[in-house]
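Page 37, continued from 36.
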């Protein structure tokens, strides 16, 4: 595989890990197109944070559909794309967490999983997955600094549950190439040196693919 054949780089990480910021910076650096997570125009998100039990299934299916469409567009296109959050996180972290918390029924969850498995049989994993690993204090600091109203009601317990699921998922991630970056130890938003180190790491990973 040469660099011109790399189609899909994706960034995974908990809420507030810094995915969007790093996507923008790497996209700019490598000349990649950036596909953002659809939060601003998401018709379910604010309702979900008001009544999670009522809207959890609707929200998760919306995300699943949106990201599946992104992957198809990436694989059918001729540009390299860096993606803000992955379809795997919806299925391995957010949906099962909602189910375990009693916020999604077993019937809905099984329906959702069937849909996810079908979609996964039709697409390839990212050429490179970048996981932004972050502790709860880092996540909270980032969430507070961006001041999104609907995120204000999020509990520390919720973030902690998600983090545990992320660690478990990443520990068993074997479908593609993986680069783990500790967001507690780098400030790629304001420190060019830290960003440069990450760019070098990504470059190294991509060169290792061919």
């Amino acid at each position: 595989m040469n660099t011109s054949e790399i189609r899909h780089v994706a960034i995974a990480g908990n809420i507030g890990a810094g995915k969007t910021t790093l996507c923008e910076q790497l996209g700019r650096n490598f000349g990649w197109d950036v596909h953002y997570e659809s939060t601003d125009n998401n018709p379910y998100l604010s309702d979900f944070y008001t009544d999670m039990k009522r809207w959890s299934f609707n929200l998760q299916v919306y995300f699943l559909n949106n990201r599946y469409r992104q992957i198809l567009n990436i694989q059918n296109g001729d540009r390299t794309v860096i993606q803000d959050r992955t379809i795997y996180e919806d299925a391995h972290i957010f949906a099962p967490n909602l189910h375990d918390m009693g916020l999604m029924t077993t019937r809905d969850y099984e329906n959702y999983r069937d849909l996810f498995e079908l979609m996964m049989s039709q697409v390839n994993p990212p050429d490179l997955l970048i996981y932004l690993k972050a502790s709860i204090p880092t996540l909270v600091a980032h969430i507070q600094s961006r001041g999104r109203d609907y995120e204000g009601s999020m509990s520390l317990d919720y973030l902690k549950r998600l983090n545990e699921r992320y660690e478990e998922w990443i520990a068993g991630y074997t479908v593609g190439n993986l680069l783990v970056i500790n967001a507690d130890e780098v400030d790629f938003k304001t420190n060019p040196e830290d960003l440069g180190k990450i760019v070098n790491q990504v470059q190294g990973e991509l060169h290792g693919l061919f």
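Residues 97 and 136 are 17 Å apart (CA to CA). Flag for discussion at group meeting. The chain has one domain: 3-207.
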